[in-house]
């Protein structure tokens, strides 16, 4: 699709395929001013050469309470868990929170989860049976859900309610609604009780580990643990579900690439990197604000201005990805899917590991795999940040032995 005029951001065509719009913006309006649903002006940055350095520039802040007007903030009852975490804080608070969290997110710990991730994946595939039709978002998407609930130490009896609350709490379209606030308040209340219980009876889980991490005499308070749990819960589920769904979608759309991956399974890590570059789970980095009057690529942005750094657009920029609108698992990895700098995704290694295991096991088991509906019928998640199919119906049959 060729665009000859300024495109509509976040309309139906954009949600289905934002990359033609990004290509137009990179050429014609690389720092693009638009209006947020709340009526505030904002700027979308689209070129790699601008996005990457500004991800690491302290002149863009993250503190929602410092920069947003009161009417644009979440209600006071849930504001603490949505704003008092690593994602929405600046140094020195961010530096301290990330340092403490990193102690529980070591490379060794992530790799130690491999056997459990493999076990969960095999159990989910066993449940699908040798052939049939399923929505992979509902079935294989249970992998990151199960894993994050186990990591947080949520009792299995509570998973259904926990999932229902967290889905509503991560829905960009319902943010600020009564339903959103009710779900977030319920999740907050449950998680606070869970933290209190683990203070008395710690387990072998990430939440219990976060309670005991120390940097000198410093540790996380209960309020900080609550905000951290929310961040890990929403980030650990939704982005990895999207990664798995998008990976399957683009492999099925590109049968030559699927055939190459089946013939050379050692390319699986590179295939995951290309999925992240080509159609990563986060279209834009989370909201930032100009700490002072700044200029990006010749465009002035006033102090307090809202800035979105376009991760998806930057990863398609032909300056770093020649022929970037073509999906090619042989391509050398260079993308910003997990951000860059101090706010780079702390769970990126875990997401990669889950993606590799899920896709590898799926392709190994099912020699036949195809979409169960025409591609134009797929529904994509709307919003400024998360990117991925809302459902992915597929037909499958086990590989011939």
UniProtKB/TrEMBL annotation:
<dbReference type="InterPro" id="IPR017972">
    <property type="entry name" value="Cyt_P450_CS"/>
</dbReference>
<keyword id="KW-0503">Monooxygenase</keyword>
<dbReference type="InterPro" id="IPR036396">
    <property type="entry name" value="Cyt_P450_sf"/>
</dbReference>
<keyword id="KW-0349">Heme</keyword>
<keyword id="KW-0408">Iron</keyword>
<dbReference type="InterPro" id="IPR002397">
    <property type="entry name" value="Cyt_P450_B"/>
</dbReference>
<protein>
    <submittedName>
        <fullName>Cytochrome P450</fullName>
    </submittedName>
</protein>
<keyword id="KW-0560">Oxidoreductase</keyword>
<dbReference type="GO" id="GO:0005506">
    <property type="term" value="F:iron ion binding"/>
</dbReference>
<dbReference type="GO" id="GO:0016705">
    <property type="term" value="F:oxidoreductase activity, acting on paired donors, with incorporation or reduction of molecular oxygen"/>
</dbReference>
<dbReference type="GO" id="GO:0004497">
    <property type="term" value="F:monooxygenase activity"/>
</dbReference>
<comment type="similarity">
    <text>Belongs to the cytochrome P450 family.</text>
</comment>
<keyword id="KW-0479">Metal-binding</keyword>
<dbReference type="InterPro" id="IPR001128">
    <property type="entry name" value="Cyt_P450"/>
</dbReference>
<dbReference type="Pfam" id="PF00067">
    <property type="entry name" value="p450"/>
</dbReference>
<dbReference type="GO" id="GO:0020037">
    <property type="term" value="F:heme binding"/>
</dbReference>
């Amino acid at each position: 699709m060729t665009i000859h005029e300024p495109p509509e951001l976040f309309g139906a065509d954009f949600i289905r395929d934002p990359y033609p719009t990004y290509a137009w913006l990179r050429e014609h309006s690389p720092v693009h001013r638009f209006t947020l649903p709340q009526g505030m002006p904002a700027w979308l940055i689209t070129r790699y050469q601008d996005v990457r350095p500004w991800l690491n520039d302290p002149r863009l802040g993250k503190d929602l309470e410092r920069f947003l007007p009161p009417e644009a903030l979440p209600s006071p009852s849930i504001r603490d868990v949505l704003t008092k975490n690593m994602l929405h804080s600046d140094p020195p608070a961010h530096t301290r929170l990330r340092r403490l969290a990193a102690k529980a997110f070591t490379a060794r710990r992530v790799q130690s989860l491999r056997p459990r991730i493999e076990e969960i994946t095999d159990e989910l595939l066993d449940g699908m049976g040798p052939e049939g039709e399923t929505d992979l978002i509902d079935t294989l998407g249970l992998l990151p859900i199960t894993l994050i609930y186990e990591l947080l130490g949520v009792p299995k009896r509570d998973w259904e309610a926990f999932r229902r609350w967290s889905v509503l709490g991560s829905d960009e379209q319902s943010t600020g609604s009564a339903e959103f606030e009710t779900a977030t308040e319920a999740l907050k209340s449950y998680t606070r009780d869970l933290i209190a219980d683990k203070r008395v009876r710690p387990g072998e889980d990430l939440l219990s580990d976060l309670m005991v991490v120390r940097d000198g005499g410093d540790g996380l308070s209960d309020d900080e643990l609550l905000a951290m749990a929310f961040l890990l819960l929403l980030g650990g589920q939704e982005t990895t579900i999207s990664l798995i769904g998008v990976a399957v979608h683009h492999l099925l759309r590109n049968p030559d690439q699927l055939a190459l991956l089946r013939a050379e399974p050692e390319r699986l890590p590179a295939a995951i990197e290309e999925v992240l570059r080509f159609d990563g789970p986060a279209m834009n980095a989370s909201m930032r604000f100009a700490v002072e009057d700044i200029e990006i690529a010749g465009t002035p942005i006033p102090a307090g201005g809202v800035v979105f750094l376009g991760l998806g657009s930057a990863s398609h920029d032909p300056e770093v990805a020649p022929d970037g609108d073509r999906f090619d698992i042989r391509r050398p990895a260079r993308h910003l899917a997990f951000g860059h700098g101090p706010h780079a995704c702390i769970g990126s290694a875990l997401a990669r590991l889950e993606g590799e295991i899920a896709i590898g096991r799926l392709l190994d088991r099912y020699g036949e795999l195809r979409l169960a509906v025409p591609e134009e019928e797929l529904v994509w998640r709307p919003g400024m940040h998360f990117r991925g199919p809302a459902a992915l119906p597929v037909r499958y049959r086990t590989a011939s032995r």
